[in-house]
Write a structure and sequence with these properties.
This protein has four helices and six strands. The protein is α/β, with parallel strands linked by helices. The chain has one domain: P-loop containing nucleotide triphosphate hydrolases (Rossmann fold, 3-Layer(aba) Sandwich), CATH 3.40.50. A six-stranded mixed sheet has the order 2-3-1-4-5-6, with helices on both faces. The longest helix has 16 residues. It starts with a strand and ends with a helix. The structure holds guanosine-5'-diphosphate (GDP) and magnesium ion (MG). The site of magnesium ion has 4 residues, from helix 1. This is GTPase Der. GTPase that plays an essential role in the late steps of ribosome biogenesis. Associates with the 50S ribosomal subunit. It comes from Psychroflexus salis. Belongs to the TRAFAC class TrmE-Era-EngA-EngB-Septin-like GTPase superfamily. EngA (Der) GTPase family.
Length: about 160
């Protein structure tokens, strides 16, 4: 049984906000500027008595010729390789983007257990918008709000179960 969980997704979906909530420290850099978290960032947490390590990653973008973005993509791929379970964070307010499709492709290729976190569901108002994320072809999703913490319990139950 492994115990490494990687948080991946394109820039600005709320990965670092969720990571910070999980490790309850202000370790990762959270910024409204896309792609601020450049390096992988590790923390430890536990849920239902199960301890595990969490990796926050930078934002994945498809086919960039920017060398910094290309390096981030490489780090994301390494994090996926290293992880036992992956939390794939997407953003309900924007729907599926080409970068989300790129991440989904990587994850299907990895054959690792993936739990989709549809983030920014701050109220029930946009809960139905989340259904489109089924079409990523990665199964079940969980709606969360990394900002107010709602939904994270059910998500973490699924993560720990897949470890
Ligand atoms: P990252 O690039 O994926 O790490 O995203 P960040 O965690 O840096 O967040 C990007 C932006 O989205 C910031 O302005 C956050 O405050 C905002 N954000 C993150 N989670 C939520 C959420 O659950 N609801 C809303 N409304 N905004 C969020
Ligand atoms: Mg970040």
């Amino acid at each position: 049984m492994g115990n490494i969980v990687a948080i991946v997704g394109r820039p600005n979906v709320g990965k670092s906000t969720f990571f910070n909530r999980l490790i309850q420290r202000r370790e990762a850099i959270v910024d409204s500027t896309s792609g601020v978290t450049r390096d992988r960032n590790y923390g430890k947490t536990d849920w239902n008595g199960r301890e595990f390590s969490v990796i926050d990653t930078g934002g994945y973008v498809v086919g960039s010729d920017d060398i910094f973005e290309a390096e981030i993509d490489k780090q994301v791929e390494l994090a996926i390789e290293e992880a036992d379970v992956i939390i794939f964070v997407v953003d309900v307010t924007s729907g599926i983007t080409p970068d989300d499709q790129g991440v989904a492709k990587l994850l299907r290729k990895s054959n690792k257990p993936v739990v989709i976190a549809v983030n920014k569901v701050d109220s029930n108002k946009n809960i139905l918008d989340a259904t489109e994320f089924y079409s990523l072809g990665l199964g079940e999703y969980y709606t969360i709000s990394a900002i107010n913490g709602s939904g994270s319990g059910d998500l973490l139950d699924a993560v720990v179960e897949a470890l």
